[in-house]
């Protein structure tokens, strides 16, 4: 699995498309059979921060993409902090499992892990 991360509007989706994936390959639905799961932070927010069983649905995807959520201002609301915490923990698990981790900044990819 390749884990792609980076700030909002950092070029993650364009980068994934440059890897040869088309829109039909990309989904926000972890229950789908899509090769790429995009907007993981939005998925977790939609689930109210409940990430139970999500790792198992994602670990064998070709690509999982999530915006970085740990470098900004800490949210005031308890619910938003919980969502950010759960997202961060899941991202750590996915990055550990991934063969490759790529961080996008200003559209430029930086490989931060590659065990292939």
Per-chain topology:
Blueprint: E1 2-6, H1 12-18, E2 26-27, E3 36-37, H2 40-46, H3 54-58, E4 63-67, H4 78-97, E5 100-105, E6 108-114
Parallel strand pairs: 1-4, 1-5, 2-3, 3-4
Antiparallel strand pairs: 5-6
Helix pairs in contact: 2-4
What features would you highlight for this structure?
116 residues; alpha/beta; Rossmann fold; 6-stranded mixed sheet; 23% strand
Report a brief summary of the structure.
The protein is α/β, with parallel strands linked by helices and 116 residues long. It has 4 helices and 6 strands; from the N terminus they run βαββααβαββ. It has a single domain (2-78, 89-114), classed as P-loop containing nucleotide triphosphate hydrolases (Rossmann fold).
What does this structure look like?
The chain has 116 residues and is α/β, with parallel strands linked by helices. It has a single domain (2-78, 89-114), classed as 3-Layer(aba) Sandwich (Rossmann fold). Helix content is 34%, strand content 23%. The chain is built from 4 helices and 6 strands. It has helices spanning 12-18, 40-46, 54-58, 78-97, and strands at residues 2-6, 26-27, 36-37, 63-67, 100-105, 108-114. A 6-stranded mixed β-sheet has the order 2-3-4-1-5-6, with helices on both faces. Helix 2 (40-46) packs across helix 4. The longest helix is centred in the C-terminal third of the chain and has 20 residues, at 78-97. It is globular and about 40 Å long. The model has no long low-confidence stretch (mean pLDDT 94).
